[in-house]
Amino acid sequence: MRFELFIASRYLRAKRRQAVVGVITAISVIGVAAGVASLIIALAITNGMRRDLQDRLVGSTAHVMLMRVAGDGIRDWQPLLSRLRTTPHVTAAAPGLWEQVLISRGARSSGALIKGIVPADERTVSDLLKGMVAGSANALEPLVDSDPNAPAIPPIVIGKDMADSLGVQVGETVQVISPQGEMTPFGLVPRYQRYTLVGIFKSGFYQYDSAYAFTRLADAQRLFSEPDLISVISFKVDNLYAADKIGRAIETSAGPGFQTTNWMEQNIELFRALRLEQYVSFIVLTLIVFVAALNILIALTMMVMEKTRDIAVLMSFGVRPEQVRRIFLFQGLLISVIGTVLGLIVGYGMSWLGGHYRFIHLDASVYSIEYLPFAPTLIDGLIVTAVSLGVSLIATLYPSGSAASVLPAEALRYE
User: Fold this and answer.
1) Is 210 within 8 Å of 370 (Cβ atoms)?
2) Could you tell me the CA-to-CA distances from 165 to 77, 156, 158, 208 in Å, in that order?
3) How far, in Å, CA of 25 to CA of 298, rounded?
4) How far apart are CA 14 and CA 3, in angstroms?
5) DSSP string across 239-284
6) Which residues, including other chains, have CB under 8 Å from residue 144's CB and lie 6 or more apart?
7) Element (H, E) at 183
8) What is the C-alpha separation between 1 and 155, in angstroms, rounded?
9) Crossing angle, helix 321-357 and helix 268-306, to 10 degrees?
10) Could you give the residue ranges of the DSSP H alpha helices within 113-258?
């Protein structure tokens, strides 16, 4: 062990003539540990929120969506779909017909976004139909016209929160009201259609579970009186973060009159808010480390005052001023290292417990997820450690400089 580090560790363990110095030292260690633990937990929560939301969004929606610029839908879509499936980096494609409707059951009703789909294709671009909690989405498969068992009432699949809101269960019927009705002498009359609920899905994402519904593409086209029309072609690509470039390639392949959007554009404000929250949390919680660093400065300053005679004796034995400076630099660094290590243990331990047991529940209607996720990363630990040690090291500069400027003759004059 180096001479300076040995003396620093002895000073740190020594019994104090003034108890307040020991108390401030202990508070400094606890303060650094609290600041580091708070930073680790806050960054883990922010990372967990971003990761969880991204996974749910990517799993529940298509990576890229193609629409007509004029918004009047895509006609003669089968040849276009077949051609676009061969676009480089496109791994799957599915047609869909989106419309806003009102779904009611007795006196209860709920606004919904209903999508006419081909289930075999839809499962390749979205995971919503894979999260069934009741019934099955198999009833949405297209029926053969000659099938004698074809039901008179078409099937529908809705989200769990919508099912709870309507008070409906699998096997019961709901009424779908389309605003695209028929013109009569009394004005525009909405179109009504009864559907049999054949399945309930749960994605864990409130936006989808409370507002999304699926039916067969042919049934949706009949409901909206739009035969052989779709509103969107959804794509899954092999690189999430290149979705914008792949989207432009799809636009070029589709020809004029088409435009694409992707999952990043649709949720840019959400991820921007999460990143801003991460920065703000880091800055605010770093203040705890600054407070702990002030305690280190006070503790070392008082220790220099307490050890002035010992410093003078050391210097009279030939210890150089730069060695004295390093003694107190090492002492502040030891306080910071102990506090940082304790903070990392507590921070990563609490983050692991929170992520494993999910004991902090959230209101899904507000936060879109049902529990508070934790995702601690190694890089966050390295950044927090560097900040903690750096701030603490700066706090030791003044007291260590004061110790190095002690004049032995003046300190020992009256001894």
Assistant:
1) no
2) 36, 16, 11, 14
3) 9
4) 16
5) -GGGHHHHHHHHHHHH-TTEEEEEHHHHTHHHHHHHHHHHHHHHHH
6) none
7) strand 173-184
8) 77
9) 140
10) 119-125, 160-166, 206-209, 217-223, 243-254
Task: State the Cα–Cα distance between residues 209 and 207, nearest whole angstrom.
Answer: 6
What are the structure tokens assigned to 6, written together? 């040995």
pLDDT digits (tens, 9 = 90+) for 168-210: 999 999 999 887 766 556 556 678 889 999 999 988 778 889 9
The per-residue pLDDT for 288 is 78
Tokens 């289930």 belong to residue: 119
Q: Which residues pair with 54 in a beta bridge?
A: none
Nearest to 232 by CA among 101, 97, 99: 97
Given a contact cutoff of 8 angstroms between Cβ atoms, the answer to whether 353 and 325 are in contact is no
Residue 212: its H or E element: strand 212-216
The 10s digit of each residue's pLDDT in 24-69 is 778 888 888 988 998 899 889 888 888 887 787 787 888 999 999 8
